Fold this protein.
Amino acid sequence: MFTRLLHAAQKLSTWLVPLAALAILAGFISIAPAGILGKADAIGYAVCHRLDERSFHADGRQLPLCARCSGMYLGAVLGMVFLSLRYRRSAGTPPKAVLAILGLFVVIFGIDGVNSYLYLLKSVYGAGMSFLPTLYIPNNTLRLLTGSGTGIGMAVAVFLSLNQTLWKDWDNRPVLGKPVDIAVLVLLMLGVDALVLTEWNWVLYPAAFLSAGGVLMLLTMVYGTLWAMVMRQENQYLTLAEAWLPVLAGLTITLLQISVVDVLRLWLTHTWGGFPLG
């Protein structure tokens, strides 16, 4: 009985998912601010506080994501591209040394994030929060750097899960198994960060779209992986074209989540800007 219902759901989904994708895409476009950058803002709005003073600006315009989130999703995009080129269908656990490095990135991210949040509370509420400890004065450079390190770790985790779940021909070769690869990846990320920190407009505009695209990419991969698991379609695909249904389903769920969060946040704050403080 369950098997018949599952097969029926799988067949029905080949029609329903594309229709749902079109409907939800139309809904997202209708609620998001005008223009391509406006759509990128709407994506960032669903996952980021978007505080103006904690963001980079191009031509005086705030980027879709704050400095920390920009670094995180730029790191995720770079990490995913690097891993796809170097390891393709590999899904083996990275060596312990690499896991330790990625774990250290997350710890540093957490320390800087907590310190930055405590500093924000003291800045907003003044003497009432003066008892809160802060290790140092936070800044956007540290937010970008710590965010990008965590973004690399996110890319590794999602890459492993996706390969193990979707592909029929995945292999056990350890991701980032060659010591030089983690060094190259970190150096590339530092190069990207250095470009962003120049705050040149010709760098920040592509960074705005890449970081917003990184949100769509990661969430689509996560939800696409979950879709394949729920629909019992694991390890059935050899190419991306064959895996169109879980990918489209993942993108549809992603756009639905972003749209719902956008509507709720806009209803609560009445602004597409950062969370009101004070």
